[in-house]
Amino acid sequence: MVEEQHVDEDMMKKTETEDHAVAQDAVFGEITEEGPNYRNVGWVGTVALMMKTQFGLGVLSLPQIFDSLGLIPGILCVCAIGSISTWSNYVIGRFKLRHPEVYGIDDAGELMFGRVGREVLGVGVCIYWIFCCGSGMLSTSIGLNAVSAHGTCTAVFVAVAAIASFMFASIRTLGKIQWTAWIGLACIFVAVIMVTIAVGVQDRPSTAPSAGAWESDYKLFASPSFTKAFSAISALIYSYAGTPGFFPIAAEMRNPRLYTRSLLICQGAVTATYITVGTVIYYFCGSSVASPALGSSSVLIKKVSYGIALPGLVVSTIVVLHFASKYIFVRILRGSRHLTANTFTHWATWLGCTLTITISSYLIASGIPIFGDLVSLIGALLGTFMSYQPMGCMWLFDNWKAGRERPTLKWALLSSWSAILVILGTFLMIAGTYSSIVSIVASSREASGGPWSCADNSNS
Length: 460
Description:
It is found in: Membrane. The protein is mostly helical and 460 residues long.
C-alpha cells in the first residue's frame, strides 16, 4: 500500500534546498544533513530498543515472584500484566500518530491536563528514569562482583558502570545506539538460557541444604500475605514498566506507522521468555531459588553467566540514561536551532544533561543503603503511574467526544476498559506503594551496610 511505503508525511515533510535535503519534524524542527538525524530508527531496531527497555536481569526475579504467588497464579499474573502493558503501549503509538508534536509523556500530559499535567508527568518520569539508571548501575556492580569474586570495593564497580554508561549514552540519537540494544539482548538471553539449563541438570540449587536428600518444593498455589503478594505483583509490573520509554522510541522512528508491528513482536517475545524462564527455574529450585536466579546455579555457572550478561546490564543502563537525558535536552532546546545543529550550545547542553543524570544516578545507587527497597517503592509508585493511568486518559482524550456523538459497542467497551485501566492502575499503585513502604521499614531495621559500601552485593 502507498501508505506503508512512505514515512508519515504529517510528521516529517521533506523539501529540497541547494545544498542538502531538509526535514521538518513536529518535535525536533528542521533536521539537516549537517546535524544529528533523530528520525532514523527502523522497525527492526525499534523491536530491539523496546525489548531492552523491559527485558534485563529482572527476568531472573520471576522465579521468586512465582514462589510468592504460586506457579499458576504467577503465570496468570504475567499474562494479565503483559496484556495490560501491551494495550498501554499500543495507545502510545496511536496517540503519537494523532499528535505528532508529542515527544514524551509530559507532552501528552499537557495536551490532556494543561501545564499541571505536563509538570507532574515530566518530573515523575525524570525521577523514575534516574532511579532505573541507578538500579542498572547497581546490577552491573553485582555482575562485576560475581565475575571477579569481589575483586574490589563495590562502590568502585558502581563508578565503573556509571562511566561506561555515560560514554555510550552520550551518543545523541537512538538510531546510532540501537546496535547496543541488540548486543545487550543477546547477552542477557544467552545468560538466562544458560542458567535455565543449568538448574535443570544440577542435583540441587546452590542455596539448598548441602546435606541429605533434597526435592523441589514448588507450589502450584501459594497463600501470601497482602504485602507479600503486592510486593511480588509490583516487581512484575516493574518488569514491564518500560512504557514511558516507548514515547521517545516512537518519536525517533523513521515510519511510526510500523510501531504496532514492533510492539507486538516485543511484547510476545518478552512474555514468552518470562513465562518459560520463570516456570522452569522455579520448578527445579522451588523455595530455594535465589533472587536474581543466577545465584541458584553453581558458582562456576554463576560467574560465567554473569560474565556473559554484563554487556546486557550496561546496555540497560545506557538506554534509560539516554531517555532521561534526551527528555531534559529536548525540554531545554525545543524550538531553537540548537536542537538539531552541531553548535557549542547543542553539545554543551547534551553532555551536561547526560553527565547530570549519570552523577545523580550514581549518588542515589551508592549513597542509599536500602537502595533495592527504594527502587521497589519508585517502581510501585511511579512505574505503575507512568504505565497505566495516563494511557487510559489518552484513549479517552482522543475518542470520548467523537464516540459520544455516534456511540458504538466497540466504543462503549473500549471506553469502559480505559476507565477501568485508570482505576486499576491507581489501586495497584497504592497497594504496591504500601507494600514497598512496609518492606523498607523492615529492611531499615536490619540494614548493616552504609552509604558507598564496599561489601559484596553478589550473594556469593
